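Moderator note: this is an archived Q&A kept for reference. The question asked for a predicted structure of one protein chain; the sequence and the answer are reproduced below.
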Amino acid sequence: MSGSNLFEHNITAAKKKVRDEAGAGCTCPVCGQYVKLYKRKMNSQMAHFLCRLYTVTRQTDGEWFHVRDFLDAGHKASSDGTYLRYWHFIEPRDKADAPESDDEKKKQRSMGYWKITDLGKTFAEGRSRAKAHVIILAGKCEGFSEEMIDIREALGAKFDYAELMGRDNEPVVALQGDER
């Protein structure tokens, strides 16, 4: 086997090993990094994050918000809410979208800024359902579970949907095809 073919063979074998063992967790034979496949459920903290971002967007007609702008002091800034990017419900601000500034440090301040997408708005409004779990490997989405969830199910009993959305006595709207 030539050097090039041996290298390709070793990389292919390493990829197979990682794919086969990532569910339980393994060490990558190429880089030595620990690799694990994670299944993350859309939980109440994620749903709360989305509802708060939706509300602040609607109230101010703004686009980009830092987590401190819409999360209460009691919620950690490193919220699980940022996982919603895998569902395409939110997107992070890119450095290119940061406001113009002569101060290089201010230009770099894009971390922590999020925007709700149209898909996120539809889900937050209770007009759609989403896959209940995301499968993540090395920070990348590998897929989703088959189970579906809506915003109220994701919030659970921990949060009041109408209160979060700034609505009183809101009737529950049945989703198309929903048996409720």
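Archived answer notes: The mean pLDDT is 81.
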